[in-house]
Design a protein that fits this description.
Elements: H1 56-59, E1 77-80, H2 81-87, E2 92-94, H3 96-102, E3 111-114, E4 124-128, E5 130-131, H4 133-141, E6 145-148
Parallel strand pairs: 1-3, 2-4, 3-5, 4-6
Length: 149
Amino acid sequence: MAIKVHHLRPAPGAKTAKTRVGRGEGSKGKTAGRGTKGTGARKNTPASFEGGQMPIHMRLPKMKGLRNKPRNKVVFQVVNLDRLAELFPNGGEVGPAELVEAGAVRKGQPVKVLGSGELGSVSLTISAHAFSESAKEKIAAAGGSTTQL
């Protein structure tokens, strides 16, 4: 006989009946798991109450000063000149799409070219969202050109 979904049952002892506390001496009655006397045995106290000790939210220091996080900050994907010379040794046109294809930057984010390293004799026509001054100078010196997007 094939087993079916309606034949499934929990393992014996996996399900136990809910204990109803405070319902008479015979069944977890009397104090109902609250111990004897004291504030905790009576009515409600907030979970954060620490028995009159200075609570943790008042013991911890307040954070002072201005947290100036610019909401419109542009985070660039950066590429250095030595990396460009390595990826495109034959020169030619280089844009964000070619850089993504080469695995130098991530797709869909602005690209900035920085001037670390040397291009050597590689002449590149680079289009990017931003350039550092040193990068512009080195590209021009190598016989290439820059286009800001």
